[in-house]
């Protein structure tokens, strides 16, 4: 089963700084620009991705709340239903939830913008 990655808003700054420093120190890349500009680009890409996931989470919760009576009547597991709904919404919006694929996508977006 593919591992899901959940980026939390309070982790963004650390992740952004780590990515930017790793890219600058990489011997495989020749980057033209400053650490500061790379950090800003990385921040915008990661923040946009986190915001997309938060929006998907909100829509999934809204759908759960709209059907709460049925869920309770049928004795369904709300957490499991939340993940099923989230997975469907993410698929519909081409949002990647898997750890490795999401890291790859973020990396490519950062490098494309830089």
UniProtKB/TrEMBL annotation:
InterPro entries: DUF507 (IPR007463)
Short name of one Pfam family: DUF507
Protein name: Uncharacterized protein
Organism per entry: Helicobacter suis HS5
Upper classification of the organism: Bacteria, Pseudomonadati, Campylobacterota, Epsilonproteobacteria, Campylobacterales
